Amino acid sequence: MIADLSAADLDSLLARARADYDAFRAKGLKLDMTRGKPAPEQLDLAEGMLALPGNRDHLSEAGEDARNYGGLQGLAETRALFARTLGASPDRIVVGDNSSLALMHDSLVYALLKGVPGSAKPWGREPDVAFLCPTPGYDRHFAICEEYGVRMIPVPLTGDGPDMDKVEELVRDPAVKGMWNVPKYANPSGDVYSDETIRRLARMTTAAPDFRLFWDNAYVLHHLTDDGREILNVLDACAEAGHPDRAFVFASTSKMTLAGAGLAFFASSPANVAWLLASASKRTIGPDKLNQLRHVRFLKDHDGLVAHMAKHKALLAPKFAAVDEALEARLAGTGAARWTKPEGGYFISVDVVEGTASRVVQLAKDAGLLLTGAGATWPKGKDPRDQNLRLAPSFPSLSDVKAASEGIAICILLAAAEAESAKRKDAA
Ligand code: PMP
């Protein structure tokens, strides 16, 4: 542990860390570990889709012309293909266009402007609207809240979901209308919500009668291990607990097929589906049904989807292993960082020495290595401990991930040694 080193040993660690950093910087690399984008090889897995449906294949099973307007809820066969993944029957699924984030954004905006089933008035007419934000979390969720003036209340994650004692206490405030959740392989913590966490979320008493769980199951099939994790069906749990309208489930094929040209989904109770469609019908005459047909032709059925996801795993798992190896090799036993070993998803979350995350990002940047900004995983971009970093190893090549991870470890160690040295100087 760095904190236990003698003054002389700390000086020599600092000198060594600086030398390693200078050598890394001298390589003049250009590396980017900022965003959870699929790599080109992953997109290539779905290259066959670009020729589909093709061959004058434009009719749905029900005989609808997928080239034309209409079909707001999505083709029946597309909803059936994803029903198991979403944990909802096809009649409780809406297929949107390519972005689930857009569906989340629109759901919140509709709630603010019009309210949701069970609202006494639009959320936007309440004096104060707040969302619980399990933290570290997804920066784009927080950005939606910030954009529309929704107050964000951070709640710590425990490894199997949010601290439920805290959540149950906070929802006694009627201003708390919603909560963000990435229930499986969370971005970036890798949390997988336990059955008990999901039951408590479904059952808890909320002061707001129109409280909603924004259940972003973005990584539902995105396993990194052979035996992927299953979580409890939140729609069923809410219905069993007497709160059938509590959860809005979101997902997409952004990281299954094509990140910029996938399908997004909303799944919920009949009342919530009718509510979304009512507003959606003012926004659009219908979604891109050719893309829905393309997905059905390419993936075929649930087993086809699962088989496709195994190909992603084969490309991604070595990259995650490379990050872990590099961090382990340089940081094990130093006390300079703790990091997650996710079983799925797209991110590794690293907690560095308190107060050094920004320094690590700056050191990395100066050496040609781009990291997600420190604080990005917290509401309004402000990590009160300046401690959390999000690593996204999916996009760079395996050799770049190896080089970047070594660089990250070097920066973390240097920042930790600098901080310890400064602390001792202050104390002296
Ligand atoms: N939710 C989470 C948790 C994500 O990490 C991401 C992508 N990084 C998204 C949603 C974006 O989804 P989509 O492409 O469907 O808009």
UniProtKB/TrEMBL annotation:
GO terms for molecular function: L-aspartate:2-oxoglutarate aminotransferase activity. Signal peptide: none annotated. The keyword Lipid metabolism does not apply. It holds the Pfam family Asp_aminotransf. It comes from the Bacteria. Keywords: Aminotransferase, Transferase. PANTHER family: AMINOTRANSFERASE, PUTATIVE-RELATED, ASPARTATE AMINOTRANSFERASE. This is Aminotransferase. The lineage of its organism: Bacteria, Pseudomonadati, Pseudomonadota, Alphaproteobacteria, Hyphomicrobiales.
